[in-house]
Amino acid sequence: MRVTLLGVRGSIPVSDAAMLAVGGHTSCVAVAHDGERPTLLLDAGTGLLQFTRHFGPEPFRGTIMLGHLHWDHVMGLPFFRPADHPDAETTVLVPEQGGSAVDLLGRMMSPPSFPITPTTLRGRWSYAGYEEGWIERDGFRVLAREIPHKGGRTMGLRVTDGSGTIAYLSDHSPHDLGPGIDGTGELHDAALELAADADVLLHDAQYTASELPARRHFGHAAAEYAVRLGAAAGVGRVLLYHHDPSRTDADVDAIADVVRGLATVPVDVAREGMTLQLPERPGAGGHDVADVAPRARMD
Predict the structure, then answer these.
(1) Domain containing 87 — which CATH number?
(2) How much is the pTM?
(3) Predicted pLDDT of residue 292
(4) CA 241 – CA 73 distance, rounded (Å)
């Protein structure tokens, strides 16, 4: 399984010479079977615009799975040229939260706010609401679990192809469930289940523990929590993700250096364009956690 990080920034895209090494595009991760073009995309932030650069302009055929519907995770969708094509076939999966997936996306993609609606894109598009549980898409098994985050329903995701596994918790406010042992949040069951023995944990690290008290109401996690969760779940590596838009490359690297000193698991910075070849640990990460029957409603 090959995973490419197309966008790693949180909240808004940024462009600055001091931020080039980390990257300025918002959340999007491309997942592919070895030797193939990606058929599964996690989130559709502005990083989605980097898909053509990495994988070419040919029509997309696959699934875009949205963890939640905040702007920084969907704003790339109407600009995704490989899917806006007569020969493309795209399924968009949206967490169930009242209303159809088309209607939920249409609140952001419709006049007068935006000239194109979800139903006027070219190609064959289908939209589905999904619930917690296992979903099988394009040869991958994806486990969805609801996790705390401000403003609408949010899912964390676990993707496996039977050999490698990545856990994706891009936006996560675990302190909503209690302070935990260090004040950065509880190690709750959903997060632990998603991350259990994964090769790589991509986790919200927008803030530091010292910043969190003043920013608790923004709905994001501290880097210290990300490494604590990774260690408790037995992951192979933690990648700090969803970087604050104010952070320079030096800022992000400094945070990583600090939390490495606290961690018992390898820690790296998620950078735009980074490619992961999974499994990273032979014999680990590919097994499934306890199954929950998948439920998805097609619109």
Answers:
(1) 3.60.15.10
(2) 0.92
(3) 36
(4) 13
